[in-house]
Amino acid sequence: MKRKLYLSTLITSLLFVIHLTTQAQNRTLKGRVLDDKGSPIPGAAIRVKNNPTVGTVTSGEGTFSLSVPSSADSLRITVLSFKEQIVAISDDIEVRLLPSETQMDEVVIVGYGSQRKGDLTAPISTVNTEDMLKRTTAGPMDAIQGSVPGVQIVSSGAPGSNPLVRIRGIGSFNNTDPLYVVDGMFVGDINFLNPNDIAEISVLKDASGAAIYGVRAANGVVLITTKKGKLNMKTRVTYNGYVGMQVPTNVLKMANGAQYTSFSLQRKTAQDSATAMLSSQRFGGSGVAPTTNTDWYGELLRSQALITNHGIDLQGGSDKVTYSFGFNYTYQNGIMETKNDFKRYNIRLQVEANAFSWLKVGFTSTLTNATTFYAPNVAFSQAYSSSPLFPVYDEQNVNASPVKFANASFIGREDANPVATAYYNYDRLKNFQVLPAVYAEASFWNNKITFRSQFSQLYSSGHRVNYSPERNLGPGTQVTKSNLRSTQERVTNYILDNLLTYKDGIGSHHWSILLGQSTREERWRQTWVSADDVPNVEESWYAGRGTRTASGYDEDGYRNAGISYFTRATYDFDNKYLLTATFRADGSSKYQTKWGYFPSVGLGWVLTNENFMKSQRIFDFVKLRGSWGKLGNDGVSANGAYAKVLGGNPNSAIFGSTGTSDGQYLQGYTVDRNFTDITWEVVTEWDGGIDFEALNRRLQGSVDYYHRTTNGSAFNKPLAYSYSSVYGNWADMVNSGFDVSLNWKDKIGKLSYQIGGNFSTLKNRVTNLGSLPSSTSGFPEWMAEFPNRIVVGQPINYFYGYEFIGIYQTQDEINKDPIASKYNSTAVSKIQPGFPKYKDQDGDGELTNADRVNIGNYIPTLNYGFNLGLQYANVDFSIFFQGVSGNKILNLNRGKLYKASTSLNIDEEFASNLWTGPGSTNAYPSANALRDSWFKVSNSFFTESGAYLRIQNIQLGYNFKLNQNKAPINMRVFATADRPFIFTKYNGFTPEVTGVGYDVNVYPVSATYSFGVRATF
User: Fold this and answer.
1) Are 309 and 241 in contact (CB under 8 A)?
2) C-beta separation of 214 from 566 below 8 A
3) Is the preceding peptide bond at 402 cis, omega within 30 degrees of 0?
4) Three-state DSSP class for residue 491
5) Cβ–Cβ contacts within 10 Å for residue 651, how many?
6) pLDDT computed for residue 180 by the predictor
7) Burial class (CB in 10 A: 0-12, 13-18, 19+), 41
């Protein structure tokens, strides 16, 4: 590394001496560069056409002064977003540049720098931030759902929630979240940002683009820069805000009172008959015909919930200083009828000053103050299960306090009251976060060499309070003690980056070299305390006001440090042949293996710059790309490669009691002798792609094929002949597929239109399990009944069970079926008409474990989005669609029938289609079958298609100006419908399910209808 620095310094010094010796033969030129409207263009590159080593850039006023050799006859003037222009040398030069019509001139932020899009050798996707602002979402990632090929985003309707984000599949049993880099700082998510504060988003999807981030990049990288001012920019103030209403959509309909009664009686159990009779006697009705008909989802959901966002953005700059300031307020109420909402304040500040002609210094900071009230999601699950035959409130329930909620025990059931669960919930998180960064950048030798040093920090402090009051809902539901749990969490991270960049060229050869060093430290600490008998007054919610037990306290934390060295070299010949090579060495304190090495290389060939493409008239730009590289994931547990002593509450106990205390607390310990050498997971990826513009740049697109292999994915491997397991890097897996993006822009008279779309495919396969034949996991508490299974050659965590193929219609069909007749010959409870039929996979005439197969996987094999935009005069209209297919969801709401067939409700679709006789249905079993053990096996009846197509966004806008004679105000008013319609066959609130595909009634996604205004002056 030192030798490279010395060599670079020597070459720079020699070239500088040569430059000085030829200075006497040069002439000095002065000029100005303007846009097509006469405004100055700062930062335009001015270079001698046949000697690009001689050049400069324009000032904030668009002016330049350049000493050129006497033999020079023309200048090449380039600046991003404008067409290149070559002008003859004269004494006074004034150039007007026209806007570029190609996306290839866009500046794309890449790791530790930026590049022209046309020069990229990696599939880096950028996000149109103007389109992103059309979405009425609290977080930025929700706003780009379906917009970036290769990126799957699964949203939740819960206020302030983070979406699940996966880039090019799943390669880990551990952390699968991408790395987010905001203004140079590593963060775990970007939900703290307001979309109004974002200037640019780039998604590094492949190893060539992301390898510069080493052990943090295996799941992809999302780069974000916040808004900044510009030199010589008059102060510009922008207000952007909207007010909207969220409306529950696709609300799951449950069996009503009559349907539930019919369903219950068909099961022919004493408990079901008693439930109907007791409901009639207590709440109304005659005999077994109750009149109670409680729609628990209707009681639990608000008809509408407010969402609003308001932001002020101020930008500007003088000839030496730029500045930007933003203030944003976001509020999102939840659709559950309880205290659940999200409130966030954002303040953003940026200042950059040109202290000298060769030095600029800057400061950026983003401050966030947010409060989230979390809803009890279990109430949604309870609303599915609870019988409609008892009401929300019951004045006859004399023991209920402080509210007379109804109790299911009076109708012989154990159902929860979902409304009461929501009412007595208090779960609040207050979070404060500040993200400051200071930097200095020095430029030398006509800006060919720059050195940048930046110190970034993240400080976050969170306080979460859970309070459960003393209450009584009647028999069996009395809570005699209130409880308070208070949790404090603090995160303190910092990164120090030092970057040296050299950019130059000779003739048709252009190159750049980046040398970098980064130091980071991450600290996390969490402390919690719990106490009983805390008064039900918020001012008294402190653990010291109650009775704290010996086990009601704990503290945890970690501290990790790392140091990295990295380099990137780019080269192009005549803008035709492109090369990018990166290398990063990462050192980490987390593992005994301290260092990891991550190389990558990317190649590009611009075919349209070849002579054989000059005569064709179809393609305006075609570039072939190929790349290869390695990435790391240090999101696995820290190294446990040693025998360790485990302490803390799980290993301790309380002995004895004095009657006035909880006894004596004694610390206990266990020794874990099972260990292995853990290190980061490593991804090796290659990518091949093409970028093109055709038909006079009206058609633009890209196509990529990728192949990602993860080696050493870490998980707990069971140890033979014991109940223990050992955590280690055991598994390998592969993700592969295509990313495709197409966009068409054109005009018909005065009507401009745009049609675009993208899709990505994904094939996931496990290729190694570390000598295990298979591994089984699943949803907690339901792992045995509905397992996930991992087998070499299959997707990770597929659902495992019997293949449901229909319903036995008649006794004769049962008698002729080898599986059914074999089962009935020994079973006490016989298969009857209306019972489910399963496929005999191996043809042996009986149902065994050998007949269990892959009955679906939660990973979509296809993600897609497409849009249409129209503009006529001052009016614009856009519509955007998004969807997935190829995945399955295990409907655990229905699956609960597995354990509790006599204590659950069913959805209306189920109730309306129950088998009632031969030929009535071949898709749903009879009510009687639901309580039988033959039905209570994991089978594909419970796995449903997770495919959907959603209208993601519709917006109609009108643009106009106010006060045109003096200081004009550019105005835009718009109306938006966000997620108004979804087309899906899934029997649930939403097919957007996180985790490994189990639906236990997740918080539903709502439609949002809003009106907004944007004003710039």
Assistant:
1) yes
2) yes
3) yes
4) strand
5) 12
6) 96
7) buried
